[in-house]
Amino acid sequence: MYSHILVPTDGTALSVHTVTKAVEFARTVGARITFFYADPDASASLTDDAALLKLIAPDTYRDDYSGRAREILSKAAVSAGAAGIECETVSRTSTRPHAAILAATDELGCDLIFMSSHGPRSFGGVMLGSETLKVLVGAKVPVLVSSVEKNDPAPAMNMVTSIMKDEHRSIAVVAYGLRTFARGLQENRPVDFDLLKSMLGYLRAFPSKLHHPKEEAYLFKKVQERTAELDPLITELQRQHREGDAALHALVEAIETLGTATPDERIAFVTRLESFAGEQLKHIGMEENRIMPAASRCLLPEDWATIARAFGENGDLRFAEETRESFRRLFSRIANLQ
Ligand SMILES: [Fe+2]
Ligand SMILES: [Fe+2]
């Protein structure tokens, strides 16, 4: 039916949800995916703060703007990879995203565009919301509008699950990166130790300071208030959080002496690195395949609203926008170094 699907994404919670839906759809029809990001080139506008930032602080500009494509697309690619779907990622700089989407569809020979919409009354300035209608009008191939944000019957639940999944994708991108490092060390290839340290540092900071506490304080807690059936699974996930943190701490210490390590110690480090990365991916799989579907069945709209408030602005201070933003920048730096 369809063999090559173009999936535009802009990194918003809605497009994270769309990426998940697109991957499910591609699996059903046996198609491959090209994830597409239209980079708005923020610095092109002389009235924009970005132009000034590019001049006075190029590193910050790179983290905030120009690294965005790689950051967003690497997470989408992980979603497809986890489902065994063949995918590519493409970005184009354009101030007219709908034209870039249509041009890429032609150029790459895609036979379906799969996207979402913020709805006809959206003036949020978010790329895909304002562009969907223009794509629908101009497309020469079918366009599947997977969801319209304004019609979402469970916005709080979808917001929370999109945030959780997006954070899982960041962790997974880094975990796959660790596996690449492990292979490099095993084959005695030159390895960028500073990047390896940044990746371990990111995992040490982000999951333990933001992601795990959020899961335990809100998602797991609310599920346990509604049912005792999932207690053994939640206990296991909490154990994995603690053991993962301990394993990571040991890896961060071990890397300091890796330069003078014996061949056996090096092999032991590689084994631990691989096993740690594998455990992270397994943990994410358990949460997405077991706890999240269970939560969507047993939690009530008011539970999701409480969780969504805690994750949003003015919610629980530990998960404030500023904290999220500093982790996003760190992830962007890592995604763009790989
Ligand atoms: Fe977790
Ligand atoms: Fe998680």
From TrEMBL:
Residues 161-295 form the Hemerythrin-like domain. InterPro entries: Hemerythrin-like (IPR012312), Rossmann-like_a/b/a_fold (IPR014729), Universal_stress_UspA (IPR006015), UspA (IPR006016). Residues 1-145 form the UspA domain. GO terms for cellular component: plasma membrane. It comes from the Bacteria. Belongs to the universal stress protein A family. This is Universal stress protein. It comes from Zoogloea dura.
